[in-house]
Amino acid sequence: MKILLVEDEKKVASFIKRGLEEEYYTVDVAFDGKSGRELALSQEYDLIILDIMLPFINGITLLKTIRENKISTPVLLLTARQSVESKVEGLDSGADDYLTKPFAFEELLARIRALLRRKESEKSLSLRAADLVMDLQTHSVTRNGLAISLTPKEYAVLEFLLRNKNKVISRTRLSEHVYDYHFDTDTNVIDVYINKLRNKIDKDFDRQILFTIRGVGYSIKDN
Ligand code: CA
After folding, report:
1. How many CA atoms lie within 13 Å of 158's alpha carbon, on the beta-carbon side?
2. Are 148 and 141 in contact (CB under 8 A)?
3. Are the CB atoms for 186 and 124 separated by under 8 Å?
4. Cα(38) to centroid of ligand 1, in Å?
5. Rounded to the nearest whole angstrom, what is the distance from the C-alpha of residue 52 to the centroid of ligand 1?
6. b/e code 118-157 from CB counts within 10 Å (16+ = b)
7. C-alpha of residue 82 to centroid of ligand 1, in Å
8. What is the pTM of this model?
9. What angle is formed at CA 149 by the lines to CA 22 and CA 197, rounded to 5 degrees?
10. Which residues line ion ligand 1, judged by CB < 5 Å?
11. C-alpha 177 to ligand 1 mean position (Å)
12. pLDDT per residue over 157-213, tens digit each?
């Protein structure tokens, strides 16, 4: 799951980014409204966390721009302002939820989970391909009932492929989804993760589910 965080307080931003990465999310950070707009309009995100008071373009204006561009990604607004009017204005502008600073990180996580659940049409708590099951709550992965231990990056690669099951995903799209935008897209690194993943989820099992489509990308197939 990839999240865009637009927050101008560097300390707050790095605290949130680090905490979310520990929870297996990939996070892009923008420190002002302008670069936030650039990322929001050019990249694919599962969720956007938006501070309201931002340099150049404030969070509410940015949110309106995002919605005007028909991007329906869930948006969680963060703000120090506690007035009822600003909450109403935020929700009226297309925000899905609202959190007032300072907040407990646990609460931020709970709200993120709730928004992502709401976004998933099938509301499923797990992803499957053949006998492989990924539990989205506990981050555990099993195949034929056997526990498979994955690193956060391996998990992120597998999760994205599972969410796009039976489709072919290019290495570029995969690396864009799994890394933040500071990452120099050396797609060879994706090949390394795919090989590790293949050793863990396919090697000791009869049926192959992770496929390399030469010159195109990768695919998890179960049909
Ligand atoms: Ca701010």
Report:
1. 33
2. yes
3. no
4. 18
5. 6
6. eeeeeeeeebebbebbbebeeeebebeeeebebeebbbbb
7. 14
8. 0.69
9. 95
10. 8, 51, 53
11. 26
12. 999 999 999 999 988 888 878 876 655 556 678 888 999 999 999 999 989 999 999
